Every structure is written in C-alpha cells, then in structure tokens.
Amino acid sequence: MTVDNGAPEDHDPYEALRVRNFRLYAIGWFVLLIGTRIQSVAIGWDIYDRTGQVLALGLVGLIQAVPAIGLAIPAGYLADRFRRRTVVMCSLVGATVTSTALCLVAFHEAPVRLMFVMLLLDAIALSMGRPARNALMPQLVPSRAFHNAVTWNASMFQISSVIGPAIGGILIAIESWMAYAVCAVASLAFIIILFRIDEGARTRTTEPASMRSLLAGLGYMRRNPTLLSIVTLDMFAVLLGGAVYLLPVYAKDILHVGATGFGWLTSAPAVGALCMAVTVAHLRPMKNAGRNLLYAVAGFGLATIVFGISKWFWLSWLMLFMTGALDNISVVVRHTMVQMLTPDSMRGRVSAINTIFISSSNELGGLESGLVAHCFGPVISVVSGGIGTILVVLLMAAGAPSIRRLGSIQDAGVDEGN
Questions:
Q1: Which of 164, 199, 234 is where one domain is finished?
Q2: CA dist 53 → 57, 59, 365 (Å)
Q3: Which of 51, 93, 326, 354 sits at 20 to 30 Å (Cα–Cα) from 192?
Q4: How many domains does the chain fold into?
Q5: pTM confidence score
Q6: CA dihedral of residues 95, 67, 162, 351 (deg, nearest 10)
Q7: DSSP summary character for residue 138
Q8: What is the Cβ-side half-sphere exposure of residue 296, based on CA atoms within 13 angstroms?
Q9: Which residues make Cβ contacts (< 8 Å) with residue 210, sequence separation at least 6?
C-alpha cells in the first residue's frame, strides 16, 4: 500500500477537533457509542440468559438489521428535506425512550417479548436518524478537514468497541437494568450537546415526497461511476471477507485457545483499526486515495487468507489486526468520498443507499460464511472469501478506471451546481 510518509509542517492531525462544532459532535457521538455498546452487550446477555436459545440471539440481529435496511431510503429523504440536526435529535429522543423502556422491562423482569418489541422500536428510531447524522458531518467542518473528521470518527468508533463492552460486562454483573439506563442517559446527553451545535447553511431538496425523489440517491450513485465503484468494492469486501463470523469455531476447534483466546481474537480487528486511524490522522492526506483503497482491500483479502490457514494463535491474531487496520483505510476513503462527491442536497439519500449496501453485506456476509463453512468447512470458507475479495479488487481495478484515477482525499469535492 502506498501512503505518504512524514507530515509536513502545515499538516495538523487535530484540525477537525479544533473546530468547535465538530468537537461537540464528536463528544456526543462518542458518548452515544459507549452507551449503545453497553446496551448491546446487555441485550445479548439478558435474552440468552432468559431464553437459553441461540436462535433468540439470531433474532436480535434480524430485528436490528431489518429497519436499518428497510427504512434507509425514507430516512435519507428526511435528511435532505428537513434540518438534519432536528432529524437526528428526534431519532435520539426515540432511542432514549426505548432504552428507558428496556431498563424498566429488565428491572421488573417483564416478558421477553416486550424486550423484543422495544428493541425493534429502538432500531427503527436509530435507523431514521442514521442518514441525517452521516450527512450532518460535512456541515460541521471545512471540506479540507472532512477526511480528518472521518478519521477521528472512526477512531472513536473503535475505542467504544473496546470500552463499551467492558463497561457493559461490569454493569451486567451488578444489575443488567443499569446498562439500559446508562444508554438512555447517553442518548439524552447527545441530544443536549446537539442543541449547542450550529448546523450552518445548507442546500435542502425541495422535491415533494415521491418514488422518484426517494430513489434519487440511487440514481445519482449510478450516474457517478467513481462513487458506485467505491461503495461496490467495499460491499463485496465485507460480503466475502467475513472471517469474524467464524471466530468462535477457530478459537475452539482450530486454534484451541478457549474463551480467553476468543476474546483476544475478537478484539484484534478493533485494535488494528484504532492504530491505523491514529496513524492516518498524523500522516499527511492521501494523494492517491483510489490506489490506496485498492491496495487496502487486496491486503484485507490476503490477511484473511493467511488467517484462514494459520494454526498459530499469534499469527492469527496479527492477521485479524491487519484486517482491522486495512479496513480502516477503506472506511476513511469510502465515508469521505461518499460525502464529498455528493451534492449537499442529496447527501442524506446517497448515505441511505450506502447504508443499505453496507448493512446488507454485513448480514449476507455472515450468512455466506456460515453456509460455506457448513458445506465445506471453516477453513475453506475463510480462505475462499479472501480469494474472492482479491478477485473483486482485480475486477474493479480493470473495469473501473475512475477508481484508479481517484486522487487526493483532501481535495475531493463536487460542483454543487451540478
């Protein structure tokens, strides 16, 4: 992978964090992430503890995935039609209410079906605000600093992935209802912080709600080969490189490291992503973002292959670390380009299409890994996924020259007049 070494004197790795609006947003977003991670751990524990059924855990994933995919398009229209800060705040109000309800359900040990109902309502509330939240970020920082904002945003996501479950486990050991209460407080805190953020001027769509306006994001993405190529590449990488779904099998039956080793393996991608995010923030902006993206995804596939055939724990851990680090490059490039290559009046709807691509590939990736593992074994499942990821990179590099020509991540932008 080609990256620029060293940092010029005028490069500020904390540029986005020096902007008051983004700094406030980042604090609120981080608090919310911690809260949602705590709640996710509590939900999984409570439902399995009370039902004793693995299928119930699968139902949790389904309940959360369906609204994320099914409501993405109308949520994207809301993000482009109304004030994005207001849409996000309304979404968080719903999440605060549902987390409070989950707290009461857990405290009173109400029927599990009520927990599923509240979980569905919580997923609906958060799904309706997701495109608006993604599209709000470019309004909070100068365009030249947006890639830096995405990098720090990704860092906070990874930190929360480590800290949140740890806190959640402590709270569960005391009383599980406390985890839901903390999540409700976190959502409320983000709402309060959003009140202090100046959304700034933006271009809103004036199109009335119709099938054409709802699907305008898909149409724009189809007309923009660079954007479509970036999202498609990331989608197939997630779909085929699903080694993480088989970590319990590897920990127990292949590496023979038990529950403790499983915990280490699970943390490896997050640690790798965090290290890469901090590194990218301190390096000068990528000058060849498209080429770096292709190298990163190909490296992700190669690391997946090595993990698949490894029978040495620390080599396996290192390869998972590398998948997280390389995936972080993909995340930074994709999120930056999706927002910067899209007119402000359509960012919500394009973000919605991106959400569908990524959410569906996450769920289908787990299904693909499980089916191949069931038919041919876990090693073939992981290795074939890595090979498939590399083949997709080669096909995209050959068939989508626009992605190879993609230049500086800092200078990416779109003519709003188009």
A1: 199
A2: 7, 10, 22
A3: 354
A4: 2
A5: 0.77
A6: -100
A7: G
A8: 28
A9: none
Q: How many CB atoms lie within 10 A of CB 378?
A: 22
Secondary structure percentages of the chain, helix, strand, coil, to 5: 80, 0, 20
In a domain, 417, yes or no: no
Cα 306 to Cα 16: distance, rounded to the nearest angstrom: 36
Q: Check if the beta carbon of residue 349 is closer than 8 Å to that of residue 224.
A: no
Q: Domain range spanning residue 64?
A: 13-199
- CA 321 from centre of chain: 17
CATH number for the domain spanning 310: value is: 1.20.1250.20
336 vs 330: CA distance, rounded Å: 10
Tell me how far apart the alpha carbons of residues 252 and 261 are, in angstroms, rounded to a whole number. 9
Dihedrals phi, psi of 149, to nearest 5 degrees? -65, -40
pLDDT digit string, tens, across residues 25-60: 999 999 999 999 899 888 888 887 888 775 676 677
Which two tokens mark 82? 């109304």
Query: Are 139 and 88 a contacting pair, CB within 8 Å?
Result: no
Tokens found for residue 349:
């709807």
Quick: pLDDT tens for 145-164.
Answer: 888 888 888 888 878 877 88
Predicted pLDDT at 315: 95
| Alpha carbon distance 246, 320 (integer Å) | 12
Do 223 and 153 lie in one domain? The reply is no
Residue 330 contacts residue 234 (beta carbons within 8 Å): yes
